[in-house]
Amino acid sequence: MNKKNILLIGSGGREHAIAWKLAQSPLLNQLFIAPGNAGTSLVGKNVPVNGNDFESVKKFVIDQKINLIVVGPEEPLVRGIHDYFLNDELLKNIPVLGPQKAGAELEGSKDFAKQFMIRHGIPTGAYQTFTRETLADGIAFLKTLTAPYVLKADGLAAGKGVIICKTLHEAEDELSDMLNNQKFGKASERVVIEEFLDGVELSAFAITNGTEYLVLPEAKDYKRIGEGDSGPNTGGMGSISPVPFAGNEFMQKVEDRVIRPTVEGLQKDGIPYQGFLFFGLMNVKGDPFVIEYNVRLGDPETESILPRIKTDLLEIFLATVEGRLSEINSEIDEHTAACVMIVSGGYPGDYTSGKKISGLDSVTKSMVFHAGTSSQSDEIVTAGGRVIAVTTLAHDLKTAVATSLESAKLIKFEGSYFRTDIGKDLM
Ligand code: AMP
User: pTM score, two decimals?
Assistant: First the structure.
C-alpha cells in the first residue's frame, strides 16, 4: 500500500478534529499541520508554515514529498491556493482538497452565492445587491420589505458581516455605514439585502469532486456567547449532531433541493469543485432554504460530525481527489455527538491569552479537541478566544450533553467559560 504524506492547513478545533481522524487511517504515512496547535501536535507534526503564504507552502510540500493538501479554513481557498498549485509545474500533480478560487466564491462573495442559487433554482430568500452608487435604491428596496431586515457584507468579514436590524431606521443607517463608511472594509463595498427567513437553523455538509458527492452528517451549532442563545455572536459555542428536527424526510429535501442542485449547478457553470460544501440552512416550516454557503467544514460542527463518521476519512479524501467518490460506502454512527466549547473570559470581546490549562488528562468520557492552544515549555496554554472543544458520543442527546459538561468542568484555566445549555432547546 502506498501510504500518504498529508499537509493539513489550519490551527483550530476543526483542524484538530480532522487531524485526529486522519491519524487513525492505515493509509497515512506522515501528517503535518501548518501551523496547528498544541492538540494537533499530539496526532501529527506541527510545522511553522503560514497557509496564506503559498511560496512557503510550496517549499514545504516539495521538501517533505507531500501527496495531498487538505485546506481547513476558507481564507487560503478564497485567495487561490488551489489555483496556485495547478499553475505551478512542480505542484500541479499534487491534489488539493478544497475548491479553486472560482468555486470558493460561493463563500467569498454573498452576491455570487445568491446569483448562483437563483440561477439554479436553489431555495433561498429574495434579495438585491447594492453599492455606494446605488445606496438610494437600497434604501428604497428596504422600504419594500418588512422587519426584521437582513444586511450582508458581500465579502469575507471574519464571520461578522451579517447584521439583522429590527427597525427600518436602523437598517437604513447600517446600510449607509456599510457602503459609505466601509464598515467592513472592502468586504462591504457591496451589500446584499435579503428577505428575513423565519425558522430553525442547521448546517448540512457534503464532500464532492464536482460530479459525485457524499452527504455527511448534519449539525446544529450555537453561535451566541450566552445561555439561551443570548448576547453577541461568537465563532460557535457548541454543536450537536444529528439534529432531531432534521429527520429523513427533511434531509432528503436538503439533498434533492439543495445539495444535488448545487453540485449540478457548479458543473453547468463550468466551475470545477473538489472539497467540502457547507450549507447554512433555515428550516422554514419543514422546507430547507439556504442562508449561506461555506467552502470548508464548520467549527465547531466538525467536532460533532467527524466523530460520527466511521469510514476512514483519508480514504474519503483520496476517493474525492481521485474522482472515485461513488466507491465509498460511508458508515455513520447512530449515536448523538454533543460538543461544548470552552472559551477565554471576555471572548468574543477582549481576552488575555497565555493562561495555563490544567485537567486535560482527567477527561476520560469525552474527546478533547484543541482550538486556541499552544505549548510553552512543557505546559499547554490558551492562545485564542475559543480554547478547547469537548465532544461526547452517547445514545441520546441528553447524555451526550451532560457528559460533555462533566468533562468540560474538569478542564481549568483562569477565566474559562462555557455554555451549559447546548442542545437543551432540542431535548
Ligand atoms: P451567515 O454569516 O450568513 O451565517 O449569517 C449569520 C447569521 O445571520 C445566520 O446564522 C442566521 O442566524 C442569520 N441570517 C442570515 N441570513 C438570514 C436570513 N435571510 N433570515 C434570517 N436570518 C438570517
Answer: 0.94
